Amino acid sequence: MDSGYQAEKKTATILFCDIRNCTRLFDAEDPLKAVKFANTVLAELGKEVEKVGGRVDRFTGDGFMAHFGISDSLENHTESACRAALNMRDALQGINNKRYYEVESVVTAGIGIHTGSVAFGKIETSQIKQETVLGDVVNTNSRIEELTKYFSVDILLCE
Predict the structure, then answer these.
(1) For residue 119, what are the β-bridge partners?
(2) Does residue 109 belong to any structural domain of this protein?
(3) What is the three-class DSSP state of 7?
(4) The model's pTM
(5) Cβ-contact 37, 61 below 8 angstroms
(6) Residue 144: CB partners within 8 Å, gap ≥ 6?
(7) End-to-end CA distance of the chain
(8) Residue 42 lies in a domain
(9) What's the number of CA atoms in the CB half-sphere (13 Å) around residue 39?
(10) By three-state DSSP, how is residue 62 classified?
(11) CB-based contacts of 121: which residues, under 8 Å, 6+ apart?
């Protein structure tokens, strides 16, 4: 590994959240509406991650990736991620109550959770410096989250 790139191996829990049918919601809409959506729905769900000690790593347009147990010393980061997912489910219900009264579509989400060994480090260009997690656990969890559609559930975690 190049000495300019430092990373450390950690055991952590990764959470992926994806808003269902987001593309369909905004196909014929003003793109500014998508930004408003992100600032209301995604930001509110991200706050639930932060409340239990997790960290939103990055937003992905219609969702986000978060990690637990990297930048803090959570005793049980897997339990914290599961608590965040349940709190996100409750928050989504409140969000949908508001959307219903504003005559907007109900929003659903898929959440995947997976724990294992990840690399935590920085990726930098001259304009961007980002700390992130990488590895098989992240890639596998992306697939776990996608399986929420297949199993028709909103939360799915790996044993």
Answers:
(1) 9, 134
(2) yes
(3) strand
(4) 0.88
(5) no
(6) 16, 112, 113, 114, 156, 157, 158
(7) 32
(8) yes
(9) 6
(10) coil
(11) 5, 6, 7, 8, 131, 132, 134
The one-letter amino acid code at 29 reads E
Residue indicated by tokens 């997976």: 114
CB 76 within 8 A of CB 23: no
Q: Give tens-digit pLDDT for 37-77.
A: 778 889 999 999 999 999 999 988 789 999 999 876 667 99
The tokens describing 78, both together, are 């897997």
Residue 146: give the domain boundaries: 7-157
The encoded tokens of residue 130 equal 């980002």
pLDDT tens across 4-33, in order?
A: 567 889 899 999 999 887 766 666 677 787
The Cα 65–Cα 55 span in angstroms is: 9
Domain annotation covers residue 111: yes
Three-class secondary structure of residue 107 per DSSP:
coil
Q: Is residue 138 part of a domain?
A: yes
- Identify the CATH number of the domain in which residue 102 sits: 3.30.70.1230
| Number of independent structural domains in the chain | 1
- 28-48 b/e with 16+ CB inside 10 Å = b? eeeeeebeebbeebbeebbeb
Q: To 10 degrees, what angle do helices 43-51 and 77-101 make? A: 150
